[in-house]
Each structure stands twice: as structure tokens, then as C-alpha cells.
């Protein structure tokens, strides 16, 4: 990721799970006590995906901040 330009880094910084994945993660997380083994596996996979996206976003923001010498959290995604 270090070698990416600012445009691709901004795209990563503004990325997110799809709405349906977010809703499913929320639903499974709220009722985690009574999940089937398949649902538990799905929840684990969704949590792993969420964590990976969060780390990628943080790394992208950090690189952009280092490059510019200022915080980039208010910048909008490229069109």
C-alpha cells in the first residue's frame, strides 16, 4: 500500500463493507448467543472482513497524513 498514489489511497480510506454485509454483521452480532454453527462461521468471517477494512483504512489515512504533513480525515473521496 505504501507505493500507491494519493487517489487510490483516498479510495481505500473511504471504503466500507456493503450495506447488506453491515446489516448482516449487526444482526448476527446482536443475537450471537443463539446462532447456529453456520451463522457463527459467517459472523466470524464478517468480523474478519470488517477488521481488515478498518486496518486498511487506517493505514491509508496514516500514509496520506504523513505525505501531506497534516491530518486528512476531512478530505472527500475522488470522483
Keywords:
about 80 residues
Account of the 3D structure:
By secondary structure, this protein is mostly helical. It has one domain (6-68). 66% of the residues lie in helices and 0% in strands. It has three helices and no strands. The chain has helices at residues 6-13, 19-30, 37-68. Helix 1 packs antiparallel against helix 3 and helix 2 (19-30) packs across helix 3. The longest helix is centred in the middle third of the chain and has 32 residues, at 37-68. The radius of gyration is 16 Å and the shape is elongated. 5% of the residues are buried.
Tell me the overall shape: elongated
Number of strands: 0
Our count of domains comes out at 1
Mean pLDDT: 89
Distance between the termini: 20 Å
Main β-sheet: number of strands, strand sense, barrel status?
none
Low-confidence region ranges: none
* Range of strand content: under 5%
N-to-C series of helices and strands: HHH
Amino acid at each position: 500500500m505504501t507505493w500507491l498514489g494519493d487517489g487510490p489511497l483516498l479510495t481505500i480510506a473511504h471504503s466500507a463493507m456493503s450495506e447488506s454485509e453491515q446489516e448482516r454483521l449487526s444482526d448476527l452480532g446482536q443475537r450471537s448467543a443463539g446462532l447456529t454453527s453456520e451463522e457463527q462461521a459467517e459472523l466470524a468471517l464478517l468480523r474478519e472482513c470488517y477488521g481488515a477494512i478498518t486496518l486498511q483504512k487506517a493505514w491509508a489515512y496514516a500514509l496520506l497524513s504523513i505525505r501531506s504533513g497534516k491530518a486528512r480525515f476531512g478530505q472527500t473521496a475522488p470522483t
